[in-house]
Amino acid sequence: MFKKHPLTDYEFPEDYNLWRNSKIQLTDERLEICGHPVMESWEEPYMKTLAEIATKKGGRILEIGFGMGISSKYINDQDIDLHIIIEGNFDVYTNALNFAMNSSVKTIPMLGFWEELVGCFSDGTFDGILFDTYPIKKEYLFTERFRFFKEAYRLLKPNGIFTHYLGEKDPKEEYNELASNVGFNKVSYKTCSVNPPEDCKYWNDTEILAPVIMK
Ligand SMILES: C[S@@+](CC[C@H](N)C(=O)[O-])C[C@H]1O[C@@H](n2cnc3c(N)ncnc32)[C@H](O)[C@@H]1O
Fold this sequence. Notes:
The chain is of the alpha/beta class and 215 residues long. The chain has a single domain, classed as Vaccinia Virus protein VP39 (Rossmann fold, 3-Layer(aba) Sandwich), CATH 3.40.50. The protein has helices spanning 16-21, 44-54, 70-76, 90-101, 114-117, 149-155, 173-182, and strands spanning 24-26, 30-33, 36-40, 60-64, 82-87, 107-111, 126-131, 156-164, 186-193, 207-214. Helix 2 (44-54) crosses helix 3. The structure holds S-adenosylmethionine. Residues 33, 38-39, 47, 64-71, 86-89, 92, 113-115, 132-134, 136 line the site of S-adenosylmethionine.
């Protein structure tokens, strides 16, 4: 694995508004925002696995981070009632609106950062949550997904399922502790085979873990 965090040397935007309003660079292979390698198409099998985990109970699904819309597509392939998408970048949000308009599943994109928006949902609103954002601040490089754990627990119904981009091959004991400290019952993992290109800045292994975190 990488010896230091692979994104350490990137320049980070001074505030969230720069990320919100930044024009995106989007191709079939990748999405870049503020010069950062936010999402790449080799992640497709991983996104499919995360989407299948988050939708296992059907019902209402919350997804945070639309990106290239890959996991959104797999979420809407499942038998669910509602798909809410929270997305912090305006251009990506516009793509999410187009996706929603062309989907047969009731899909509601919301523009904003999860930190500003999740408070509008009552406890126990969702059956499944898929969290896949990006560390917009350098100080969140190692903690981005963990900052959301408490809210994930609050927003899920009992027996609901939470999953997220993990970006680790061997999760440490602290990770399970963090999940159980906020109240989650059980953490397990699915292994997903992937084939990142050699120049990928953030993953260089042929396997990646998908967490299954049960309330
Ligand atoms: C890795 S991409 C998501 C990839 C997506 N799962 C897919 O399959 O294409 C991360 C997305 O999260 C958005 N994002 C980053 N931080 C966010 C936050 N705090 N709240 C909401 N969206 C955020 C980014 O703008 C970006 O579109």
